[in-house]
Design goal:
The chain is mainly α. Helix content is 69%, strand content 0%.
C-alpha cells in the first residue's frame, strides 16, 4: 500500500467519524442531520426522515 493510499484511508476515517458525531449531535438536539452526513454514513436521507420518535 502506498503512502498516498494510507493517508487517503486515514482522511476518510476522520471524515466518517466527523459525520457520525455531527449526525448524533443533531439527533440529540432534536434536529434533522444534514443529508451529506447521512450519505457519508451509508444512510438514505429520505428513509431517515421517515423514522419517527418512540
Amino acid at each position: 500500500m502506498t503512502s498516498r493510499k494510507i493517508f487517503s484511508a486515514i482522511g476518510e476515517l476522520f471524515t466518517t467519524f466527523g459525520s457520525a458525531v455531527a449526525a448524533s449531535r443533531a439527533v440529540q438536539m432534536g434536529r434533522k442531520p444534514r443529508a451529506d452526513d447521512l450519505r457519508k454514513l451509508g444512510m438514505d436521507p429520505a428513509v431517515f426522515n421517515r423514522i419517527g420518535r418512540f
